[in-house]
Amino acid sequence: SYVVSQPPSVSVAPGRTARITCGGNIIGSKGVQWYQQRPGQAPVLVVYDDSDRPSGIPERFSGFKSGNTATLTINWVEDGDEADYYCQVWDSGRDHYVFGSGTQVTVL
Amino acid sequence: EVQLLESGGGLVQPGGSLRLSCAASGFTFSRYAMSWVRQAPGKGLVWVSLISGGGGTISYAGSVRGRFSISRDNSKNTLFLQMNSLRDEDTGIYYCAKELSGSGYYYPDYWGQGTLVTVSS
């Protein structure tokens, strides 16, 4: 099965910037989505189609893709941003989507 | 407001069966593909199955193909997942998700709160 890689963890101080990467050979072909999952809660879509934000998601969250790597950036990190973050991409070869391995963001 | 409410989870022995339901509201159910995504305890998200809005297109992850069956009743705005021959590794929270379509791909935009399935003797 196809693997989409993310760093297991990222630590960041309040007010600073967190960057989470998502890499894999299929990243470049379709849009990448990002989900935030706080402990004990369902995932929430924070970025879709590489860089668009759903309504209600703060501008502090932004997405970018270059080649086979997508990046989620969280500016001015707050305590409430502490969560697991997953990227999601469509695997055209298997006609379904896969999630990245997930990144735990810890606010110091 | 989009709402997705899963039910039907519980404790089942290996080899047993369970049927999950997801009641949807706040959107025109029949116009959207729907998926089931699961999460084992302490682990990441794993896509399980997807069904198109009309029910004519269905896909499964390899790990559940032949054992699980996804279906929907558009007259009752409800999504189902019939799970047979359950294994220990099927244990986890099962989320129902509403799908949006991009340029040739799908992604979930809304998720339910999940229902816990525990497979254990």
Description:
The complex is a heterodimer of chains A (108) and B (121). By secondary structure, chain A is mainly beta. Helices cover 0% and strands 45% of the residues of chain A. Chain A has no helices and 9 strands. In chain A, strand 7 (83-91) and strand 8 (96-99) form a beta hairpin. Chain A is globular. Chain A starts with 8 loop residues before the first strand and ends with a strand. Chain B is globular and about 40 Å long. By secondary structure, chain B is mainly beta. Chain B has strands at 3-7, 10-12, 18-25, 34-39, 45-51, 58-60, 68-73, 78-83, 92-101, 106-111, 115-119.
Question: Which features would summarize this protein structure in a list?
Answer:
heterodimer; A: 108 residues; mainly beta; 3-stranded antiparallel beta sheet; B: 121 residues; 7-stranded mixed beta sheet; 4-stranded antiparallel beta sheet
